[in-house]
Specification:
It contains nine helices and nine strands. It is of the alpha/beta class.
Length: about 260
């Protein structure tokens, strides 16, 4: 049964990527919103094909008055399907450059305005962050995975600091996203698909007005703890207990990082 489910998923994945990806590319010449719609259908189609149910929580924490910088832990490929299919706000991705070389998918990502990150070249990565900050300031939300790569066992990893350069440059609210159970759907280094449930929790926006380089470490820790608060104890790790809500903090420069929109 598991083998049949896996085969069914990959067939649907291939067809949906070709059809919806091509549609996104063609439709982008007519409507800026068309690629985003195709991406949402693509995400939901592949969740359905894998037999995955998504329990989404915290939608009331965001509104259409963004933009936001969505910051999430990263457990697997199904994080992408879930974010695209279930997050009720249009956004762009910061994604590793290799994905943009995938046939059809890469062209569709470019049409949708996604921003490639070259992790091997520091200068290019910094330039990408500058472009992303400009995109956010112009009103488009962005989704990022600050761990840099997905977790093999679902346990949240340390955050890389580069993503938070984007935050300090854009000065826009950070929304912590907690994804729980995704790593069980398709374990790392395995092609098998295991139907199940993913919990997608949207935290309260964290204001970053006035943030600078000196307050970056404080923000990184606050965002990471806000994400850990909505993971299982195993996924959150055993290094510390996590309170259900991160308290407001005062930045060294007199600005504030708070958990209110």
């Amino acid at each position: 049964m598991r083998l049949l489910r896996s085969a069914f998923f990959y067939i649907i994945f291939f067809i949906s990527t070709m059809v919806l990806g091509s549609s996104a590319v063609i439709g982008s010449f007519v409507s800026r919103g068309w690629p985003a719609l195709m991406a949402k259908i693509w995400g939901n189609t592949n969740l359905w094909a894998a037999g995955v149910k998504v329990n989404i929580q915290g939608v009331e924490n965001i509104n259409n008055h963004g933009p936001y910088i969505f910051v999430s832990n990263h457990q697997g490929w199904f994080d992408i399907f879930t974010a695209l299919g279930k997050l009720p706000i249009r956004f762009s991705w910061l994604a590793k450059e290799e994905l943009f070389k995938v046939f059809v998918l890469g062209r569709a990502m470019t049409s949708a305005g996604y921003i490639p990150i070259d992790r091997k070249d520091h200068r290019k990565a910094l330039a990408s962050m500058n472009r992303a900050a400009e995109v956010v300031r112009q009103g488009t939300s962005v989704f990022v995975f600050p761990e840099g790569t997905r977790s093999a066992d679902g346990v949240i990893r340390e955050f890389k600091k580069g993503v938070f350069i984007l935050v300090s440059k854009s000065q826009q609210p950070v929304v912590p996203i907690s994804i729980s159970g995704s790593y069980r759907i398709q374990p790392k280094d395995s092609w098998m698909i295991y139907p199940g449930e993913i919990r997608f929790s949207i935290g309260k926006p964290i204001q970053t007005t006035g943030m600078d380089g000196r307050s970056r470490e404080l923000l990184i820790e606050q965002v990471r703890e806000a994400i850990r608060a909505n993971l299982t104890p195993e996924e959150a790790g055993e290094d510390a207990k996590v309170e259900p809500e991160v308290k407001n903090s005062i930045l060294p420069n007199g600005g504030s990082v708070c958990s209110d929109a």
